[in-house]
Design brief:
The chain is mainly alpha-helical. 77% of the residues lie in helices and 6% in strands. It has helices at 2-14, 23-43, 46-66, 71-82, 97-132; strands at 87-90, 93-96.
Length: 133
């Protein structure tokens, strides 16, 4: 992987792509390549998928260097952030434990509020009946 990253960096230098002023245009290129990858997935076209993913890596590596960042450092930072996360996968998406625990708590609170509201309505109805009788 190190050699491939160095090859991309050298290629980008030779093409004059590593100037920081190019980073906004490069970000658009990243989005374009990710979009092409999504299209390849929808078409279930394996060769286009491999090409799109590879091009996405290349555009991200170039963007890193334009911004003065080392691609391996960015990947390491992401890994360090996610490696110990707890959670579960729901419908193909990983949901961090904090997120789904908070969702469960919110559902519990709403359910509890609904019970309290029903009890309040019952009490109010009884009190109203007393007044009317």
């Amino acid at each position: 992987m190190d050699e491939l990253i160095e090859n991309v960096q050298y290629w980008a230098e030779q093409k004059g792509l590593l100037e920081k002023g190019n980073s906004q245009a490069q970000m658009l290129k990243v989005i374009e390549e990710v979009g092409e990858t999504a299209g390849a997935m929808l078409k279930q076209n394996h060769s286009e998928l491999v090409d799109g993913l590879g091009d996405s890596f290349v555009t991200l590596i170039v963007l890193c260097y334009q911004l003065g960042l080392e691609p391996k450092d960015c990947l390491q930072a992401a890994w360090d952030e996610i490696k110990d996360r707890k959670g579960k996968t729901v419908n193909g998406t990983f949901i961090r434990e904090k997120s789904w625990v908070n969702q469960k708590k919110e559902k519990h609170i709403h359910a509890h509020q609904n019970i309290e509201m029903k009890e309040a309505k019952k009490w109010f109805t009884k009190e109203l009946e007393k007044l009317l009788l």
